[in-house]
């Protein structure tokens, strides 16, 4: 008996528009205070959405808080503690906020002074609105999707591979979810997709890695 | 696709143009009016000159209006500009009255078009008071601030804030420039147009001809700063840096200053710069016409190192232009320059003439590293600071205002 085919994979795209919250922090205590009352969407902006923004590619830092601690506060220990925070380890953005506050409060308790920055080097809180739209591209079969991936925009990569994880309870990307409907033949591809750590790559690099998953083990797995 | 959009697709990528079409579709036919205070000279006029036709290509009913004012009006608005950038300025009541009267006079002429528009973008402080003169406005009004307002002189900001507060939104080039306002404050960096006369590729022969026309030595290294003669651009500091480099390398310096019709201080600063340069034949102070775009383009391509040693800067489009031509940039650590000059990647940030001199020598002595930084800078601009990205942000902003404050917007 043949199983039902999944519906075609509809390729979506997205872009961000960034808004300033008009709140900034000039020292670590202010950062903690502001963090406790900014909208949760601001945390999403400073973690995952940083990938889609007009910034210089620097995957060494996974979030803006770590980057600020390293480059402006020059508190390397705090930067490392903030850098390892993976937003997907937390059930929701409020839990993520609590983790950030804990790290900062622990650091404040360790220090005998409050690290601060000169005017002009403050942390500015932002948030984004994400605008999502269809591309008109779709894939009926996994092979069709493999052919489409090298042509995807960075917005599409972000939407289907990064943003998707907040939508799916199992923290999966859209491609893996769709391939699940195609049965065990595509299990190796799904496994390979699962090994891509999106925190470590730019969107363009991620697109290449996803494309490679349809051909064989991804680069970082080979290196291991 | 139109021939114009095809041309942009060739530079920015087809996916980028496809993005624009998707975002523009729900805005087709909407009336969008941009208002500023000069048709020629300065970064804002250059952006609008290309942005407005492109919006029309995408199906929006876009237009560009320019307010008219006398010398007194531009004196007071230059004061606003300096005040927003942090200078203490004296706001005499007579000048403030001139500001309001000029806005009222321009409103008489523009009111019909502004009140019927779906979106009105008011650029910088000069026309900010127009909103109060259009009581029957039906669309969304957006105040677009291109100035480094990170630490404004408080009396100036308090005066302007009363005109800005009733707007539906503000737009700043950097998050650091945003103010305490109740309405949404968008962050949209400006951009350059890769197909404009100032940025298109040039033949070597044209670059050589411009080099010769301005009396530059064709062989020795060229340091270049392109900017209005404005104290915030620190042209005197650039001459001091050049003198320090000159002790080690046979460099030439070009200070190419454009004229903007809304800048009454330019003449005075130009005199100060000439005094500082003295009789040095290797300091070339060029007062360029506002339409000398190809000559600026050629000078940027001829330069070995480009400087933008500003002490305050809204964004610094001359930095973007230089990076697009694959030149490393030495920039003042301020405003939007910090967003573009990434230390050791696309150039160096400096705070003093001494710092600038050291980095100039460093780059002149490492041509391969300089070339590598140049290429990185060009790629960075392609991905982030071309006109197509700017247009995409404006379209997204209009859609955002249409849909309200929700985090996710499905565009259909």
Q: Could you please describe the fold and organization of this structure?
A:
The complex is a heterodimer of chains A (224) and B (412). Chain A has helices at 28-35, 40-46, 64-71, 76-83, 93-110, 142-148, 154-167, 174-180, 187-194, 203-213, 219-223; strands at residues 9-25, 123-139. With 224 residues, chain A is of the alpha+beta class. In chain A, helix 3 (64-71) runs antiparallel to helix 4 (76-83) and helix 8 runs antiparallel to helix 9. Chain A has a two-stranded antiparallel ribbon with strand order 1-2. The longest helix of chain A has 18 residues, at 93-110. Chain B has 412 residues and is of the alpha/beta class. Chain B is built from 15 helices and 13 strands. At the A-B interface, strand 1 and strand 2 of A face helix 2, strand 6, helix 15 and strand 13 of B.
What is the number of strand segments of chain A?
2
Let me know the average pLDDT of chain A. Answer: 89
The main pleated sheet of chain A reads as: 2 strands, antiparallel
Which regions of chain B are unreliable across 5 or more consecutive residues at pLDDT < 50?
none
The number of E-state strands of chain B comes to 13
Percent of residues in beta strands of chain B: 15-25%
What characteristics describe this protein?
heterodimer; A: 224 residues; alpha+beta; two-stranded antiparallel sheet; 15% strand; disordered C terminus; B: 412 residues; alpha/beta; six-stranded parallel β-sheet
What is the compact description of this entry?
The complex is a heterodimer of chains A (224) and B (412). Chain A is an alpha+beta fold and 224 residues long.
Helix and strand layout, with pairings?
The complex is a heterodimer of chains A (224) and B (412).
Chain A: E1 9-25, H1 28-35, H2 40-46, H3 64-71, H4 76-83, H5 93-110, E2 123-139, H6 142-148, H7 154-167, H8 174-180, H9 187-194, H10 203-213, H11 219-223
Antiparallel strand pairs in A: 1-2
Helix pairs in contact in A: 1-5, 2-5, 3-4, 7-10, 8-9
Chain B: H1 3-12, H2 14-24, E1 31-36, H3 43-57, E2 61-66, H4 71-84, H5 93-116, E3 119-123, E4 140-145, H6 154-164, E5 169-172, E6 185-187, H7 204-213, E7 222-226, H8 235-246, E8 252-258, H9 266-277, E9 283-288, H10 293-302, E10 305-308, H11 317-324, E11 329-332, H12 337-340, E12 347-350, H13 353-364, H14 367-384, H15 387-403, E13 408-410
Parallel strand pairs in B: 1-2, 1-3, 3-4, 4-5, 5-6, 7-8, 7-10, 8-9, 10-11, 11-12
Helix pairs in contact in B: 1-2, 2-15, 4-5, 4-6, 7-10, 8-13
């Amino acid at each position: 008996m043949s199983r039902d085919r999944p519906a075609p994979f509809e390729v979506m795209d997205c872009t961000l528009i960034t808004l300033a919250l008009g709140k900034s922090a000039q020292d670590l205590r202010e950062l903690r205070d502001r963090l406790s009352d900014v909208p949760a969407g601001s945390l999403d902006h400073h973690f995952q959405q940083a990938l889609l923004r007009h910034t210089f590619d620097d995957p060494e830092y996974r979030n803006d808080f770590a980057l600020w601690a390293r480059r402006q506060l020059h508190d390397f220990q705090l930067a490392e503690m903030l850098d390892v925070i993976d937003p997907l380890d937390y059930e929701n953005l409020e839990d993520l906020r609590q983790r950030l506050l804990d790290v900062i409060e622990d650091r404040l308790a360790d220090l005998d002074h409050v690290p601060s920055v000169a005017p002009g080097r403050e942390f500015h809180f932002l948030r984004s609105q994400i605008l999502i739209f269809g591309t008109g591209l779709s894939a009926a079969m996994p092979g069709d999707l493999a052919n489409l991936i090298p042509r995807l925009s960075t917005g599409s990569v972000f939407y289907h591979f990064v943003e998707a994880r907040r939508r799916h309870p199992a923290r999966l990307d859209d491609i893996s979810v769709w391939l699940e409907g195609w049965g065990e033949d595509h299990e190796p591809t799904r496994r390979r997709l699962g090994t891509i750590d999106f925190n470590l790559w730019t969107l363009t690099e991620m697109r290449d890695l996803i494309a490679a998953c349809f051909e064989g083990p991804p680069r970082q797995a080979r290196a291991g | 696709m139109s021939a114009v959009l095809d041309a942009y697709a060739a530079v920015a990528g087809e996916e980028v143009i496809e993005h624009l079409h998707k975002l523009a579709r729900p805005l087709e036919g909407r009336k969008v009016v941009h208002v500023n205070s000069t048709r020629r000279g300065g970064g804002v006029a250059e952006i609008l000159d290309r942005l407005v036709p492109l919006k029309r290509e995408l199906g929006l009913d876009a237009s560009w209006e320019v307010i008219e004012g006398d010398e007194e009006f531009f004196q007071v608005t230059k004061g606003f500009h300096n005040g927003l950038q942090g200078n203490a300025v004296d706001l005499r009541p007579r000048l403030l009255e001139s500001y309001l009267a000029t806005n009222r006079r321009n409103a008489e002429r523009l009111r019909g078009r502004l009140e019927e528009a779906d979106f009105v973008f008011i650029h910088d402080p000069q026309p900010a008071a127009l909103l109060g003169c259009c009581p029957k406005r039906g669309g969304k009004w957006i105040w677009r601030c291109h100035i480094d307002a990170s630490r404004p002189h408080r009396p100036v900001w308090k005066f302007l804030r009363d005109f800005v507060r009733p707007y539906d939104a503000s737009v700043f080039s950097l998050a650091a420039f945003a103010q305490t306002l109740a309405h949404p404050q968008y962050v949209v960096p400006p951009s350059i147009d890769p197909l404009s006369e100032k940025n298109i590729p040039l033949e070597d022969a044209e670059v050589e001809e411009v080099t010769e026309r301005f009396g530059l030595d064709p062989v020795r290294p060229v340091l270049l700063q392109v900017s209005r003669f404005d104290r915030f651009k620190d042209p005197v500091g650039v001459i001091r840096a050049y003198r320090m480099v000159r002790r080690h390398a046979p460099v030439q310096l070009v200070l190419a200053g454009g004229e903007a019709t809304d800048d009454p201080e330019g003449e005075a600063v130009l005199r100060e710069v000439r005094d500082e340069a003295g009789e040095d034949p290797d300091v070339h102070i060029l007062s360029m016409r506002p339409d000398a775009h190809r000559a600026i383009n050629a000078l940027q391509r001829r330069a070995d190192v480009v400087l933008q040693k500003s002490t305050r800067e809204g964004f610094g489009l001359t930095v973007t232009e230089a990076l697009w031509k694959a030149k490393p940039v030495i920039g003042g650590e301020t405003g939007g320059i910090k967003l573009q000059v990434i230390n050791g990647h696309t150039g160096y940030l400096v705070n003093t003439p001494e710092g600038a001199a050291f980095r100039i020598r460093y780059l002149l002595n490492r041509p391969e590293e300089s070339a590598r930084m140049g290429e990185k800078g060009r790629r960075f601009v392609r991905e982030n600071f071309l006109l197509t990205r700017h247009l995409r942000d404006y379209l997204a902003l209009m859609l955002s205002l249409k849909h309200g404050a929700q985090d996710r917007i499905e565009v259909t």
